Amino acid sequence: MAPKTTNLTIMFADISGSTRLYEVLGEGVARAKVATCLEMLTDVTERHRGTVIKTIGDEIMCTYPTAERAVTAACEMHELLEDELTVKTGQGPVSLALRIGLHHGPTILDAGDVFGDAVNVAARMTSMSKGGQIITTQGTVEELPPVLKASTRFIDRAPVKGKKETMDIFEVLWQQDDVTRMSTGVIPEPEQRARLELRYHDQSLTMGDERPQVVLGRSKGADVPVAEALASRQHVRIEFRRGKFFIVDQSTNGTYVLSGESESFLRREEMPLSGSGKISLGRSFAENPQEIVHFKSDD
Prior knowledge:
Elements: E1 4-16, H1 18-25, H2 27-47, E2 51-56, E3 59-64, H3 67-84, E4 86-89, E5 92-95, E6 97-110, E7 113-115, H4 117-128, E8 133-137, H5 138-141, H6 146-149, E9 152-158, E10 167-172, H7 176-183, E11 196-200, E12 203-207, E13 213-217, E14 224-225, E15 236-241, E16 244-249, E17 255-259, E18 262-266, E19 270-273, E20 276-281, E21 292-297
Parallel strand pairs: 6-8, 13-14
Antiparallel strand pairs: 1-3, 1-6, 2-3, 4-5, 6-7, 8-10, 9-10, 11-12, 11-21, 13-15, 15-16, 16-19, 17-18, 17-20, 20-21
């Protein structure tokens, strides 16, 4: 069969910190930790409909049908390592991190492998990435939906091997505090004192001027960790902007909002929150979900 050419997003995820792990834990234990990490990355790739092409030492190479799926998977990979793979040793904690680079473009599929310019550019993005970063190109950012595009920033203009002209390089901001810092102060906030109360089981918190953003999700690092199997690790964020509250879905399975008798479904979208109601991560209210977040605003 002749090689097939198609547009894909190529991702390389390289484990950073593994050398220190080998020094502290010894080869056998460290190799098992790295293998566990690669298994986790493979699981995330497959859940986002990606394909693992190969593993090269401490690095994994994957393809995704769209840039959106690749970036979402990359963010979840970072979140997963942040939650799970800090190893406590007699010399203190040793953490693993990822250097992720990706690029969307034409690729050649042949005998289970991929070739082409997009592969070379993705590898170059990975070499420019530091531990905990996701680095990509302007062309890839332009393929993203607005919610994900808003979480990127231009960082450099650099030459890429095989390209006559320099390329604009972008970073994907996957950590919520980075996204908050990027957007703070762009638009003056009015002097309103609106409040939104969120309640999940016995946990309660209040949003407003002093707490303008909250993340709900399955991650232990979320502001409100929600024990829902269909939830993404950082499933949805609620923002206080210009005197109003907005819920922004950034998940795989979407978010359901029940206000009165009306149910709204969000997937990579946002909507205002007002009055009172309920939020379900990934599961429709028709399924009688048990992990419900209640909200009530006084705006």
